[in-house]
Predict the 3D structure of the following.
Amino acid sequence: MASQQQVSNTPLSLRDRLRTPDYLYAWAHKRFNFDIDLAADSESRKHVNYMDEADDSLSIDWHNLDGAGWCNPPYSKPKVWLEKAWLEAQQGFNSVFLIPTPNGEDLYRDHVFGKASEIIMINGRISFIAPEDFTVTGKKGKPDKHFKKGDEMTGNPRGSCLVVYNRRYEGHTQLSWVNRDDMKAEYKEAMK
């Protein structure tokens, strides 16, 4: 019997706007010391410096910016963001992307493996943050699930990883991992 891959119940209109949990960004920022959020809006931004849709981050030369960039790219089009990250890495710009874990798609073969310097697998599913109030319609007799703006959205059907671009050449991509619960514990301790 073949197993079916679980799919997201989150409305398509919201998937591109799901927000990064603070604990995850704090862990990554501690390691990479970001200077700008490359794809955000005033409510979802993780850094005081950020580019929103009006700034059109994909048309800007990131390598002319100082420091390193953070990006939780729109879920619907990671390819263009990862292509841009690799082009900018070749010009000396460092960036880190939060994307779904690779599972054999050409996107990762073409734009991550051998180009990114590191992939950090996150052990444990990430509950992204709801950008607004909404309801997910239940399936197979399950009740509807209601989310309020700012709620953690449990039930992510895919794992997540951080893809690090900080080199100018192609070659072996290092693989490492971090435990989601360790990230949460570290964040909780820092907030005391």
